[in-house]
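Hi U.,

Before I forget, here's the chain from the pilot set. I'm dumping it here mostly so it's searchable later in email.
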Amino acid sequence: MQTELLTAGFKYNNMRTAVADNPPGAVILPRIAYIIVTAICMITAIFLWFSGYHGYAGLIVAIGLAAAINIKR
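Structure:
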């Protein structure tokens, strides 16, 4: 049972290295969530910048970039 928990979500190739079950190019829920968060942050940053809240706009851009880093994973 413990081995099943450790290997859940992975399959093994002939060299016994773990390979994720999702096929290449598959869009998974966390990736969609990071794309949405990044888009919302960038739109919000634009509105804040043009409203004169430059510091808050910079903060929101930083949050959006942190989310954007995780999109490729």
